[in-house]
Amino acid sequence: MGAVVLFAAVSLDGYVGRDDDMPGPLFDWYGNGDVEVTFSDPNRVFTVTPQTAEFLRTTASRTAVMVCGRRLFDITDGWEGVPPNGEHVVVVTHRTADDWPHAGTAPFTFVPDVPTGIEQAQALAGDRDVTVTAGDVGGQALRAGLVDRVVLSLVPVVLGSGRPFFGGGGPPEIQFEDPVVVQGKRVTHLVYDVRR
């Protein structure tokens, strides 16, 4: 079984998006280099530095399934039915998506809670990794002991307020191993394994 990885770009003050859910400058590093990188959707091309490209390619090659919440699914319109990374998306929601144009044809599964989402994602992923989006879903997964690794793409900006990386309530005390650090341009990628 692969790892469950909580992954997101984050501001210095711990936010993954502004109060209006938009990332603002948190995603600027996806276009500040000259090396092209794509994930599941070949039409979504990013240009990053060589260091960031190597980091993203390594991470993406291990990722099979992404778990996200309904808020992100709605904001992105479910990425028009194409998973942003990996081959499948598991959406944690209490609302059906029967009216979504891609319902029944896109590789998306809808589940009622985070533990079920992680379980289904791991079953789909086999020996590859599952990523969990930061925010409420990622925070719930971390607090439940379901996360193996936390990856922060730390952006040198203070947003002042917004959507917290670990969602509401904050996690209990959790210790991590020393980080792997990859320095990009206007972003520092920090990889922390959960200490078991």
Give a description of the structure.
The chain is globular and about 40 Å long. It has a single domain, classed as Dihydrofolate Reductase, subunit A (3-Layer(aba) Sandwich). Helices cover 20% and strands 30% of the residues. The strands form three sheets. Strands 7-6-5-8-1-9-12-11 form an eight-stranded mixed beta sheet, with helices on both faces. Strands 2-10 form a two-stranded antiparallel ribbon. The chain is an alpha/beta fold and 196 residues long. The relative contact order is 0.25. It contains four helices and twelve strands, in the order E-E-E-E-H-E-H-E-E-H-E-H-E-E-E-E. GO terms for molecular function: 5-amino-6-(5-phosphoribosylamino)uracil reductase activity. It holds the Pfam family RibD_C. This is Dihydrofolate reductase. InterPro entries: DHFR-like_dom_sf, RibDG_C.
